[in-house]
């Protein structure tokens, strides 16, 4: 259980369970699951023994402190909300990528905020499976590699998050004007903001701030133009992959999905999967984009967790480990 916030009770979640499962089953217990930073995640157990997972989007479930809005063409805005979840669920399903089956589409009025209920995938995370049973994990990793390739093959000629502005004929969420800046320029601007925040709080970053800024600018200048983008998860680590009873990978925490350069995702996959990354690798990636995105990602994973620590997020030690690791990785980019 999460010790920092009380969470919702059985009585509060009973209307959600009734809408998802009908009146023939009674909600008997609720377990608030740990790890999420932007929404509440609750396991619902019914009197017949069946379970489901409720997602709850409400400011009281979001640990991130408020910050200034980003530019209108910046796809890295705060990725939370039922609309983003539902649009991402459609995109992944259309791409043939497994996500938990939707039992109750996002709905309001059942409790403060919005809620959805999905299938409870009980096989644990790929992160845990890799430690518990490496041979089984290899099978799941191979299947995840296939899923990543299907996901990234789903293309669009605009970057951004599906579902931000409502549906348009044939494709949800792409009725905004064409973004005005190339993706690499958006990433550069974001990385420079992250660098400024990190330098204000980490002495080792402050000592080489200008060198890091120069490296970002030089790497961005080397990137060639591009006008087609692939569907990416955005935070695809082994803790965001569940394993079902047939050893198939199931992606969760999908609200950050967007159409973007797939190199952004591969920079993240390299970092999070380490020596298992070759199972997910693809040919034809742009090395210049990877060089820029690796450095930008490390700076993001310094500044972001430090912002999270300004609030009451409970796993403070875990966030500090992420910060320290990425400080070292960012400085290593200057070697």
Structure description:
- The protein has helices at residues 10-21, 82-94, 126-132, 134-153, 183-201, 203-207, 209-221, 262-273, 287-308, 316-332, and strands at 27-32, 40-46, 51-57, 102-108, 114-119, 155-156, 167-168, 171-172, 229-232, 241-243, 249-251, 258-260.
- By secondary structure, the protein is an alpha+beta fold.
- The protein has two domains: 10-119, Phosphorylase Kinase, domain 1 (2-Layer Sandwich), CATH 3.30.200.20; 126-332, Aminoglycoside phosphotransferase (APH), C-terminal lobe (Aminoglycoside 3'-phosphotransferase, Chain: A, domain 2).
- It has a five-stranded antiparallel sheet. The protein has a three-stranded antiparallel sheet with strand order 6-9-12, sandwiched between helices.
Overall structural class, as computed from helix and strand content, comes to: alpha+beta
- Mean pLDDT figure: 90
How much of the polypeptide forms β-strand, as a percent range? 15-25%
Give helix % range.
40-55%
Order of helices and strands: HEEEHEEHHEEEHHHEEEEHHH
CATH class assignment of the largest domain: Alpha Beta
CATH architecture of the largest domain: Alpha-Beta Complex
- Physical arrangement of strands within the biggest beta sheet: 1-2-3-5-4
Task: Output the radius of gyration.
Answer: 20 Å
Overall geometry comes to globular
Q: Any low-confidence stretches, pLDDT <50, length ≥5?
A: 165-178
